[in-house]
Amino acid sequence: MPDSPNDPGQNNGFRRLVPGAGGPLTPPVRRRLITAAIVALIVGFVVVNSLFSTKPARVLTYSQLLHDASSNQINTAVINNANGVVTGQLANGAAYTVNGPYPALQAEIDTLRSSNVAVTFANPSSLASTFLPYLIWILIFVAFMVYASRQARGQMNGMMSVGRSRAKQFSQDMPRTTFADVAGYKGVKQEISEVVEFLKSPGRYRTIGATIPKGILLVGPPGTGKTMLARAVAGEAGVPFFSVSGSDFMEMFVGVGASRVRDLFNTARKQSPAIVFVDEIDSIGRKRGAGLGGGHDEREQTLNQLLSEMDGFEPTEGIVVMAATNRPDVLDPALLRPGRFDRQIVVPLPDLEERLPILQIHTRGKPLDPSVDLALVARGTPGMSGADLANLVNEAALHAVRRGSPTVSMEDFETARDRVMMGQERDTMVLKDDERERVAYHESGHALLAYVLDKTDPLHKITIIPRGMALGVTMTLPEEDRHIMGRPELEDSLCMRMGGRVAELLVYGDLSTGAADDLQRNTELARRMVREWGMSKEIGPMAWGSNNQVFLGEDLMHTRDYSDHTSQIIDDEVERILREQEARAIEVLTLHRRGLEALTRALLETETIDGAEAARLIDEANGEPVHPAGTKTVSSLSRPATAPEPQEPQPVAATSPVPAPVPAPNWQPPTLPAV
Q: What is the pLDDT of residues 272-284, one digit of tens each?
C-alpha cells in the first residue's frame, strides 16, 4: 500500500474521485481491448489465407510431363533444386506439379527446352518462410495463455483485496457542498464547525487544554439532512475526508468487515488530520448479543474491530469519526460511551423558522409567481423534513408544467401539498350516488367537529374526491409548531375522529366500513393515554407495557409487564374514554345538525371546500358565529386579496328554527384525585 494517496500507479483500495477525464485505462477496459485484438488477428489471418489461396494444381507423372511437352501442351516448368519437384503451367492455363528425379537430368531438361518449354530453377525456401504459418498460430496461442494468466491473477488479487476498505476519499473541492447550502440548524452547524476548525488550526484549542471529541454521532429522523451536513463538512474541511456506508463493511465471509475497518483507519492515520464519516452506522453498530445468533458472526466482529480502532486513538492523531443514524435506540452502549462517540448531535425536524430558508434554497433558480408567499407555505407544512420540502417544491414545479404555466404559483404549491399529504387523486374511481352521499356526510361530521371544538387544529380543507386509499379527506393543519399536547387536545382529537362514524349513525341510523381507520387510530391513541401517559385515574401515575422491538438486544419477544387484572382495567378505561368521546360527538353534531346538512350539500355540489368556506356555512346555519372573534382561525395557504367586509347575519326561514349557541357540553373529563 503506498504511503502517498496521490500515487497514480497504485490502488490502495480507495476509489479516487479526481475531476477530469484523464488517467490510465481501467482493467476491464484493457481486457476488452486485448480480446478484441486477438479476435481481429485470427479473423484477418483466415481472410488473408483465403484471398491468397490458389486453385489446386494437377498432379502429373514424369513420363506424362515429357509426353505433353513434346506435344506442346506445357508452357512453363519450374524445377526445385532441393527435391526435384517440377511445377508450372499447362497450355490451357492450369497449374501442374510433378515429382521429378533428384537431381534433375540434363538430357530431359534439354528435351523440355527443345519443346519450347520455359524451364527455370527454384532455390530451396528459407526456414522463416517455411515456419511462418506455424509461427503465427504459436503467437496466437501464447497471447491467449498470457490473457488467461492475467485474468486468473486479477481474480486472485480481487480475492486478496476483499479486505480493503471501500471508502471514498473527497478532496476540499469535491463535493462542493458547504454550510451555506444547509439552511437552518445553527446549533448543529456550530458544533460541527468546531470540529473542522480544530482540524484546520488545532493550536487554538490546545493552548487552553481543550480536546476535540473523537466521535460525533448525528441522530435524527430520515430526511433531515444528516448526510448533507457530512457533505458540507467535506466541502468546508481542508483535510482528507473519507466517506463510507455501514453496509460496505458487511460481506458473507467472517472477518472481511473487520479487515476493512482496519484498512480504513490505517489509511486515515497516514493522512492525518482526517475525517472519517460512516453513514447508516446502525447496520454494523447494533447491540451485540441480540436475537438468536452467537457472538462470532460477521456484524459483531466488525463492530468489535470498530470499537477497538476508536478506543486506540490518541488526541494528537487528529482523526475525527463522524456517523449518522436514524435508529439510535438500537446502537450498542459501548459505541456511545465517552472516548468513542463523545458527542451526539440531534438533527430534528425543522421548525417554522427553519422551514422558510429551506424552501428558499430549494426554490433557488425556479421561476416563482409573484403571488407565491414561501412564509405561508412554511407555516402550512408542519412536521415536514428537508427532503419532504424538496419533494414539495418539485411536485409544485411538475404541476406547473402539467398546466402549461411558465411560473410556479401558489396554486401549484397547494396542489403539491395535497398530493404529498393526502395522495394522488383517483380520477378513475366513480362512486355511486348513495356512496358519494354517505362519504359527504362522513367528512362533514369530521369537519364540523374540527371547527366547533376549541382544542382541535384549524380546519384547512374538505374533499370527497378519492385520494390515495381514502374515499374522502378532512384536512386540519396547525399554524404553529407544537411539541407537547395536553389531555384536552387529545380528547378533542378523539372526538373529531368520531365525527364521521357519528354523522353516519345520526343520518342513516346504521354504520359502514368507512370509519375503520378512524377507530383504529382512536383506539391506539386512547390506549397510549391510559398505558403510557397516565391519563386515567383508575390506572394512576404508572406506565405499562414494553414497546421494545424484537432482535434489538432487549427481549426476544414482546412481554407484558402487568397482570391480567391490570389488563382488564386498561381495556375498561380505553373503552370508557372512547365511549365518552362518542357521546360527546353525538351531542355536538345533534346541536349543529343544520351545519352538517349545509356542509354535505356544498360537498355534493363542489366536491371540495376550504376551511374558510366551511366555517362560513357552519356559522350561517348556526345563525351566529360559533366562536367569538379571534378565538379560532382557519388554516389556509390562500392569501385573500382584501379583508372580507363584515356581513349582516342572513335572515333564516321560519320553517328552520335556529339552534341555540353551543353550550358547554355536559361531559366533563375525569377528575384527578386530591393531592
A: 778 888 888 888 8
CA angle, 507 then 513 then 514, to 5°: 70
Question: What pLDDT sits at residue 526?
Answer: 93
Helices (H), 10-76: 27-52, 62-70
The yes-or-no answer on residue 443 being catalytic is yes
Give this prediction's pTM.
0.62
CATH architecture of 58-124: 2-Layer Sandwich (3.30)
- Distance CA(75)–CA(87), nearest Å, equals 11
Question: What's the CA gap between 543 and 532, in Å, rounded?
Answer: 5
User: What would be the CATH architecture of the domain defined by 168-346?
Assistant: 3-Layer(aba) Sandwich (3.40)
Looking at CATH, the fold of the domain delimited by 352-422 is given as Helicase, Ruva Protein; domain 3 (1.10.8)
Integer Cα distance of 146 and 660 in angstroms: 98
How far is Cα 448 from Cα 578, in angstroms, rounded to an integer? 19
Nearest to 301 by CA among 242, 244, 252: 252
pLDDT digits (tens, 9 = 90+) for 88-105: 777 777 787 777 777 766
All residues at 6 or more sequence positions from 648 whose CB lies less than 8 Å from its CB, including other chains: none
Q: Which of 280, 443, 573, 582 is catalytic?
A: 443
Please provide the average confidence, as pLDDT, over all residues in the chain. 75
